[in-house]
Structures are given as C-alpha cells and as structure tokens.
Amino acid sequence: MASVTRADILAALKSIAAPDGRSSIVEQGLVSEIVIANRKVYFAISASPDRAAEMEPIRKAAEAAVKALEGVESANVALTAERAPGSQSPSAAAGSEGAGRTGAAPRTAARSAAIPGIRHIVAVASGKGGVGKSTTAVNLALGLKALGLKAGILDADVYGPSVPRLVGLSGKPQVMPDRRIKPMSAFGLKVMSMGFLIDEGTPVVWRAPMVMQALTQMLREVAWDDLDILVVDMPPGTGDAQLTLAQQAPLSGAVIVSTPQDLALIDARKGLAMFRQVNVPVLGIVENMSYFLCPSCGTRSDIFGHGGAREEAERLGVTFLGEVPLHMTIRETSDRGQPVTAVAPDSPHADIYRDIARKVMEGIEEPGARRAAPRIVME
Predict the structure, then answer these.
(1) CB neighbour class for 137 (10 Å; exposed up to 12, middle 13-18, buried from 19)
(2) Do residues 261 and 288 lie in contact, with contact meaning Cβ atoms separated by under 8 Å?
(3) Are strands 253-258 and 282-287 parallel, antiparallel or unpaired?
(4) Per-residue pLDDT tens over the stretch 28-65
(5) What are the CA-CA distances from residue 62 to residues 41, 70, 118, 213 (Å)?
(6) Residue 31 in 3-state DSSP?
(7) Quick check: helix, strand or coil at residue 300?
(8) pTM of the predicted protein model
(9) Which residue pairs from 203-206 have beta carbons closer than 8 angstroms and sit at least 24 positions apart in sequence?
C-alpha cells in the first residue's frame, strides 16, 4: 500500500471550501503543520471563536476527505480557536461568575479514567527549560526500576523530545493487531516519545488542541500493560500540556526539578503552584546541577549557588528529594544514550538517583497521597 504524503493531503484539502466560499482552506492558510505517523494524519484548522460552530462542518469534511485517501487509516483534525487578549473561554467565565457568588462551589472538570495496566503515574516537571529535567526523569525511572518496580517513561515534551537520545533509541514503534502502539524498550524501561514519530530535526509546529490530542493518544493508545509506575517527562512551563496530563491521567504526584539559583526557583514555584491548583500532590523538589565536583582534584564548587531548592522545599512544606551534582560522568553518559543509573549502577551518581526514587515511592505510598484522579478547579 502506498504511503500518503503531505502533498496528497493538501491536494485533498483544496477541495474543502473556506468560510468565504470563494477559496479553499488551504488557500486561506487555515491548515496547520501536517504530521503523518503510522498511517494516521494529524492537523488543525484555524477558526475565530465566534465562528467555531460554523467551522465544525468544514472540520468534518476535511477529516473525511483525508481519511478517504489511500494509505490513511485515520485522520485527527482539531479546530484551533484564537481569542483576543484578555478574553475568557465560556467555561472560565462561568467559573469566575460562580466563584463570585456567596457560597458557590468551584466548577470542576470530569475526573479522568484510570489507564489500564498502570498503577502509578508521576510527572517530572520544571518551571523553565535547561535545568536537566529530562535527564532527571530518565534516571528517576531507572532508579525506580532498580528498586524492583516495572517502570516506563513517556516523553510528553512534544516540542522538544529528548528521551530517545537519552536512552539511545531510534526508529519507529510497532503498531499491534489491536491498533495500539507498542512502546519501545531500553534498559528494561518501556519508552514512548513523539521523537519516535517525527525526524529529529523536524519542528513540531502545533497549536494547543493538537498537543493535547497527541498527549492523550500517547497515554491511552500505547500498550503500557503491567507497569508499576510510569514517569512522564513534562515540557517546561505551566501550559496546555500540564493541564492535559492533569485532566487525562490520574497522576499519583509530581516531581519538580530546579537548579539552585533564584531565577530557576521563581519558575519552579510556579510549577509547584500549578500542580497544587489542579489538585496533584507534589512529591518533592530535586536540586539539579547542585554543585560541581572537579573530576581531577575533587574540589567542590557551587557554580549556581547552593541549597536554594532545599530552602524552597522547606518554605513551601514539600519534601526535598535530593541534590544531583553537575558532573562530567552524568553529562557524558546522557550524551551517549547510556544513562548513568543503568550503566554505572555502583557509582555515587546512581546512588543519588536511587535515593530520589525511594523518596518518590515513599511519598506516593503515604496514606492520603493516592487518589482516583485530579480535579481542574476554575476559580
């Protein structure tokens, strides 16, 4: 069977008239970047909020036109409604109105259903990029595995997936007979990432609905069967991806990664506050790049300051999970796709990650820490 191409899809979409009726949605520039993965096609159509209802038949027509192409198994088309600055969505406005009434209960989204075969899901997040979150997530998953748990890792950083390189994996995952995606495997971990579905140098130019749809599918259409714990490497920040995970997955908790300096800690506070706002337990803070150990002389240098994350954890009343040094061994093993916790299990660095993993599990198993699912509270 011939593989469908982007040109094929655009040609099909040129038959779909734009709202003006005089040109197509392609000619109007309403079609987002198109992604093709495992015979599934993903894209979005831009629409202004006041014309969303009018655009729904166009969305359905575009979806049908692409699905009819040879080599396409399914088409997933979203509408992206852009709002003027300062405007609110109907649900947010309703929530604000309700919050303003005396005695009114906060509005909440529906609780998310459990994901079959996964006992616990832990998000690893940071308020900003460049703090070593992905390296921490991979080594945390390996530390959990070293404790005897069946572990996996989901790379939810759709815009900048780095887990494939950190664990030395490439290629595309297989599609199983039941149409679920079989996760890839490295060092005893089940692994899934958007990086397996697109070329490493290809930017993901997606609006929020497409990101949310991709995350939902990587959670619920992957054969994660029989995992004690799934570690989710979140994108940095406090945006749509984090809210999607909170809505779509029953998170057992979140781990915040920060470096010691004040600028990183300011953003870490935002991440921590975001998880608390959506009712996800914060299991603790990791201070990454906590200090530098000279590999030649063993001298310690606090390049980014020291102890900031510990002090912040104490101030906010959350567990301080540990200090990870800035060290050549961690950097070199990560760059080679051979994470230190797997390839040097007797090293002091592996000991640090295992100790963090132990504290994470203790936090999950504390009475009251587990819950059926998080809530989204509209205040």
Answers:
(1) buried
(2) no
(3) parallel
(4) 888 876 878 778 888 888 877 667 678 889 989 999 99
(5) 11, 15, 35, 17
(6) strand
(7) strand
(8) 0.68
(9) 203/159, 204/33, 204/35, 204/158, 204/159, 205/32, 205/33, 206/32, 206/33, 206/35, 206/44, 206/158, 206/159
